[in-house]
Amino acid sequence: MIGVCEIAQLGDQILRQKAQIVSDVHDAEILQIVEAMQVTLASTSGVGIAAPQISRSKQIIIMASRPTPRYPSAPQMEPTVMINPGFRALSEVKEKDWEGCLSIPGIRALVPRYRGIMIHYIDQQGDFVEVELSGFVARIFQHEVDHLEGKTYLDRVENNMDIFAESEFVKLII
Question: Which of 92, 80, 56 is nearest to 137 (CA)?
Answer without folding.
Answer: 80
